[in-house]
Amino acid sequence: MIYLDHGATSYPKAPGVSAAVANFINDASGNPGRGGHRLTIAASRAIEGARVTVADLLGGDPERTLLGPGATFWLNTILCGRLGPGDRVVTSALEHNSVMRPLRWLEDERGIQISVVEGISPTGVPTAAEVQEAVNQAPTALVVLCHACNVNGAILPIEEIARRVAPTPVVVDGAQTAGALPFDFSHSGLAAFVCSGHKGLQGPSGTGVVLLAEDFVIQPLIRGGTGSNSESEDMPVVLPDLLEAGTPNGPGIAGLGAACAWLADQTIEAIRHHESLLIKRCINAMQEIPHLRLAGWAKAIPQTGVLSFTIEGVDAGELAAWLDRERGIALRAGLHCAPAAHRRLGTFPTGTLRVGVGPQTTEHDIDALVTALEDRCR
């Protein structure tokens, strides 16, 4: 198989991930923080070791690096825990439903106000000045932005935006960039950075991370047992326990720690260089294919290893099925859980075909895709 769906999840996982998952299950699958026997101690050590590894890779404080079931969970935790009746939020037109669905729910249930910055055509990427102007129009509780759009791969200038709108807190959905773009949270100026563990970080599904700035406080989305302060029916006030109720996904977190250790050894800078060369190769070749249109692409805007395209007169879903069946190439067709982005890019409701490269993608993989598209378009 030629796997070009890294925008959805990574495959294969980083070397060492499956072994770390198996080792936790076989040798450390006690309930961390719940007891003092050797298995609970081993589980706690594995999870806290992974926490430090993840924090070091992304420039976070281990004491304010939270591990949970996914980016969607952490985005919901932040948005539902910070926004009250009448609060105003500024966001972009490129957001994933993991941002827009909780925002729309909060709009209906709590009466929050949502201001969407449309950005510049054709990419939809907002400039820092545009976001600043939106923030200055009325008191704003939060700015919520993707680091990169999951449809066209366009990268937003999040650090410049954070500087321009300070002290308004900026929350970033880094699901498409963590592990793929060099990033140091400690120097970003962000209030929070949320990411998946299973995409660019190369870890197992069911894992996600949030890094919190020192002065950014949120309330838990769920409450329950933590193994600490068990004499009280109130949640502990210290992190990570305040935000990590319930038994954690120990095998997944152990695998995530192994993946981040591998990334640190490879360096994210090297991975970024590799993926940039591949996506440029893909773009250059696709521009020569008749009737193929790159969606939301502009040479001047930096992008991740993701791009979207359409072919005139060809249904994206049917083409994806043909590529899988006839050429063994895996892409994702459709709206990519981001209808807002597709509306902005002019590809709603039919969607696009999306290419996503990863650390183990090769030039041969890109060339095979291009050849298949050329054959299909004849």
Task: Looking at this protein, list some descriptive labels.
Aspartate Aminotransferase, domain 1; alpha/beta; 2 domains; 4-stranded antiparallel β-sheet; 11 helices; 378 residues; 7-stranded mixed β-sheet; Aspartate Aminotransferase, domain 2
Q: In words, what does this structure look like?
A:
The chain has 378 residues and is an alpha/beta fold. It is 38% helix and 14% strand. The chain is built from eleven helices and 13 strands. α4 (97-110) links the parallel β3 and β4 (113-117). α1 packs antiparallel against α7, α2 (38-58) packs parallel to α7 and α8 runs parallel beside α11 (363-377). The two termini are 24 Å apart.
**CATH homologous superfamily descriptor of the largest domain:** Type I PLP-dependent aspartate aminotransferase-like (Major domain)
Instruction: Give unreliable regions as ranges.
Output: none
**What is the average of the pLDDT values?**
96
Order of helices and strands: EHHEHEHEHEHEEEHHEEHEEHEH
Q: What is the domain total for the residues?
A: 2
Terminal Cα span:
24 Å
- Supply the helix-strand structural class: alpha/beta
Main beta sheet, described?
7 strands, mixed
What is the number of helices?
Answer: 11
How many individual β-strands? Answer: 13
Please report which band the strand proportion falls in: under 5%, 5-15%, 15-25%, 25-35%, 35-45% or over 45%: 5-15%
